[in-house]
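Forum: Protein Structure Q&A
Topic: Joint prediction for protein chains with partners

I've read a bunch of threads here and the consensus seems to be that you should model interacting components together rather than docking separate models afterwards. I'd like to see that in practice. Below is the full input, 868 residues plus whatever partners are listed. Could one of the regulars post the assembled result?
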Amino acid sequence: MESKKVLELYDIEKIYGNGVVANKEINIAFEKNEIHAIVGENGAGKTTLMKMIFGLEEPTKGKILLNGEEISFKSPLDAAQMGIGMVHQHFMLVPSFTILENILLGREPASAGILKLQKERENVEALCREYQFDLNLDDRVENLNVGNKQKVEILKVLYQKADIIILDEPTAVLTPQETEKLFQQLILLKGMGKTIIFISHKLNEVKQISDRITVLRKGRVISTHITAEVEAEQISELMIGRRVTYSYEELREKTSGEVVLSVEHMTYRNKDGKEALKDIDFQVKAGEIVGIVGVEGNGQTELVDALFGYKKITSGAILLNGTDISKMNIKSRRNLGLSYIPEDRMVQGSAADGNIRENIISSFYCEPSVSGRVFMKNQAVSEVTDELIGRFDILCNGADSKISSLSGGNIQKVVFARESYMSGRLMIAEQPTRGVDVGSASLIHKALIKLRNEGTAILMFSADLSEAQAVCDKILVLYSGEIKAELYEPGRITEKEIGLYMLGLKQQDKKVSGGN
Amino acid sequence: MSDKRLELKFEMMKTAVVVLITLVVSFLVFLIFSKEPVYSFQLLLAGPLLSIRNLGNVIEAALPIAFAGISTSLLFKSGLFNLGAEGIFYFSGIVATAVAVQPLHIGKIQLLLALLAAALAGGAAASISGFFKAKYDANELVISLMMNTILYGFGFYILKTKLKDLDSVGVVSMPFAENAKLSTIIPGTRISSGLIILIVLTALMWVLLYKTKYGYAMRITGYNKKFAVYSGMNFFVITLMVHILSGCIAGLGSAVEILGISDRFTWSALPGYGFDGALVAMIGRNHPIGSVFAALGLAYLRTGCMITARNTDVPSEVACIVEITLVLLITSDIVLRRYKQKKIMERGRGDE
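Posted by a regular:
Agreed with the consensus. Here's the joint model:
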């Protein structure tokens, strides 16, 4: 098949207003009749890149050529007119409308202001036949399953005469069977002259479906490969790259403790009916840091939410010191000794407009040490605040500094100080050092290990493998809602091997020790 | 302490600048409309101070607005944008009237009963929008605005069918029993003992908000609802309780207003105090003491306008421009604060 460049990106750069460099030195050429995969970890710049191609963002530098001509999009409407369509990860459909109405939405045929939807019915039906979509145009979208909703999205893009179709994590919401069907459809589309840009971090799928792969890391293009010529392992190494390595071996004291958290056959079904967590079974002991790693979107968020109390599990049990907490509210769970460092410190973890004093006691403000039955012991609150500011070396103008005046790292220290103050039995730490400078990260790691040495059970979710390896006693790998591996002495296992489990390329049959 | 003091100083300066700009704009307007702009402007600024009666008018006008302001500031402080004080003022006024017109002969207990009934009615009415917000996260602004109309309609129906004075031409209630009225505490004015109730209430609410653990939970919820839930606070209980408390205060304020200055219930339309309350709560930065001072300021301004309109060639409509300018400037500040907050959230997420 003759290959022809349809969309070329030259030296694209995107710097956001706040100085964040999202993309730099991006050079990619997409060809006709190809499925081109863009892979990279979270935050590698995939989404920003796609937004620029689709006209949602404008590049700060560089040029985009479409069929050899330089173009610049001011909006997705421009992009759509030039034949670029995007299927978003979260569907943009009106549930109460029929398939036909959804497809014609935004370009409704009308005469004298009166809708003439049926006029276009034949054209849409012809499209369905041409691309082998098995859909009844009069079904309401709300009654469709996820796979068919996605088909509607693709059909809509095709109806808008797109030649270049961007699919953002299309398989994230699909079952394996639906994924298989989608792939058949994509290969058919490719054969009919379309260019498909496939964004994913599921390497096995990328390997199966794509013709070429471009790897992004830290906003830059690392390399482009012909899929048949590279191994998945190679790609995964390119995605991860070298990182800062930490070592805390000398801080680690020998501990042996009783089981604090025991999760038994826990299953969670989300509101779409999909099993986001399947038969999860693990334990965390006192004086132990257990790490949960995995590619984002494989059940980590659901697991945290189920353990902390945001979501009610479908079946199974969560035992904290032998008490089943799975039906309790957040306050009761906290009272039993659960603490939680959330992933997003600004949304959940703090009140930006409040001062440090208000923020640092929020999870234990009813405790007798800072509050009576009705009145707060404001003197005691001040003492606790000053003590924690000192102990965690929080850079501020005193206890009355607003959280909004602190840097990200110092806000995280406030969160950590609060959650560790009550010296609970179990701490959930979710991405405890995300977006934090190396110095603060190291301080938080040491504080976690100190808590561990003192006998707290810690469950740490991390997207940073080297962090998980350095800090954890044991690592559990989550892949599509299941624990695929339980790895002891994670420091001795190579990142590459953990990567294989994370990508679902390897599965542990029985629990083995990684050490010897 | 330095940060806190600086913050307070900055906020006060901002308010002062807003007031200054308002005055400059007003003066320019007076220059256009008045043949004696300087005299009119003097009267606007100093009129309320000219006699004890004028000063009394200021406090009298400030009383209901201050009650509504405290009521609304509690909601705002907890992050609830509810404007239901308006309807509660009307409805609770009817309830107070229903008690006050009865020939009970139980002395001043009748007054206490009337105040209590009005407060409870206010709390009950507010609990409706509170429940829908707490349970279903329904938009409290929409519900409270609808409730205003419902409460007004219901109240007016009761007034017409049960409380109307048949000997009177207009739709007014029967006269209140003497024992149901608040007494005047400063001779030469109409300032009632409601002022004392207001002062006590303001102090209580300040203590509640800043000294108790309930107030702490309210403030945290107001800052960031998700953070409050994450911290283990019960959003349902807090939201419902704040609504009820706020309704009680608005209801009490209504009773104080009608039993303090009138002989019978005469409102045939919504009185506007609820919306004034929202205004002074904003000016007072959702602080109970701030709201009371803002209410005094607003009442001072209005009294000044009235005196100016009565004594000079400036029409009272022009005097309204002063108030409108003030509202515009204050709301623009709130819009900008939202924008600033968004920027802060973005920055706090990462140092990278």
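Chain B has a mean pLDDT of 87.
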